Amino acid sequence: MIKDTVFKSFDNTSALEAKLADNIARQLQDAVDSRGKASLVVSGGSTPLKLFDLLSQKSIDWAQVYITLADERWVGSHEKDSNERLVRGHLLQNRAASAKFSGLKNMFTTAEAGCDMTISALAHFPRPFDVVVLGMGTDGHTCSWFPCSEALDNALNTQALCAAVTPTTAPHERITLSKTAILNSRQIYLHLVGEAKLSVYHQALAHDDVSKMPIRAVLGQRKTPVDVFYSA
Ligand SMILES: O=C(O)[C@H](O)[C@@H](O)[C@H](O)[C@H](O)COP(=O)(O)O
């Protein structure tokens, strides 16, 4: 049983996105004011697109903000399943166009082979990450930590920043930030939309087995604050 998560429920997705975009913008600007630069890790998938649109319009010092992804499918950055494509089309727009983005995919043929290069590409990021925004799948995965995937143990236990994953339940080989990387953050948000995700979230809280629902690796820890933002 996992206790004490901060859970914020909103009447609709617009209210959720407005509040989450305000929080993230404030935390990034605070980081720039105190340390000169800030870092933001975002997730792909369908949930965060409107959040990205709103965030891109915030008036903060984006030129000092370093942005990357929690995970990426090992496909070209113009392909429809690319998370980088979503970030470029929705977040790195408007005022946020001046942010410094590093994607996770590189020219290596496989994620396994490209992992070290991705780690080097992120070496200059301010860490701990200031803000991490995670999503969750209805199987309880977050990032590309898929339940029962052979690579899950490595993604959850390596001290390296990234791990390669080939899920059996989702398309594409992937690269994902590791648990070590994600938890080395000042603030994590878990962005959930829809009743199906709420039910999965409750199932995740009810037990401790991380291999069955890897989101528990985030919800069941006390090192890094996690705020869950939910709307039906
Ligand atoms: O690349 C990805 O797929 C993700 O980063 C992944 O972890 C995502 O956040 C969840 O699968 C939720 O996806 P949806 O928002 O599409 O439901």
Q: What is the helix/strand order?
A: EHEHEEHEHEHEEHEHHE
The radius of gyration over CA amounts to 16 Å
What is the β-strand count? 10
Strand fraction: 15-25%
Distance between the termini: 24 Å
Shape estimate: globular
Distinct ligand kinds: 6-phosphogluconic acid
How would the blueprint of this fold be written?
Blueprint: E1 6-10, H1 13-35, E2 38-42, H2 49-55, E3 65-69, E4 71-73, H3 83-91, E5 100-101, H4 111-121, E6 131-134, H5 152-157, E7 162-165, E8 174-177, H6 179-183, E9 188-193, H7 195-206, H8 216-219, E10 226-231
Parallel strand pairs: 1-10, 2-3, 2-6, 3-5, 6-9, 9-10
Antiparallel strand pairs: 4-8, 7-8
Helix pairs in contact: 1-2, 2-3
The structure holds 6-phosphogluconic acid.
6-phosphogluconic acid (6PG) binds at residues 43-47, 70-71, 83, 135-137, 141-143.
Walk me through the structure.
By secondary structure, the chain is an alpha/beta fold. The protein has eight helices and ten strands. The protein has helices at 13-35, 49-55, 83-91, 111-121, 152-157, 179-183, 195-206, 216-219; strands at residues 6-10, 38-42, 65-69, 71-73, 100-101, 131-134, 162-165, 174-177, 188-193, 226-231. The strands form two sheets. Strands 1-10-9-6-2-3-5 form a seven-stranded parallel β-sheet, sandwiched between helices. A three-stranded antiparallel β-sheet has the order 4-8-7. Strand 2 (38-42), helix 2 (49-55) and strand 3 form a beta-alpha-beta unit. The chain starts with 5 loop residues before the first strand and ends with a strand. The mean pLDDT is 97. The chain binds 6-phosphogluconic acid. The site of 6-phosphogluconic acid (6PG) has 14 residues, from loops. It comes from Shewanella denitrificans (strain OS217 / ATCC BAA-1090 / DSM 15013). Its EC number is 3.1.1.31. Hydrolysis of 6-phosphogluconolactone to 6-phosphogluconate.
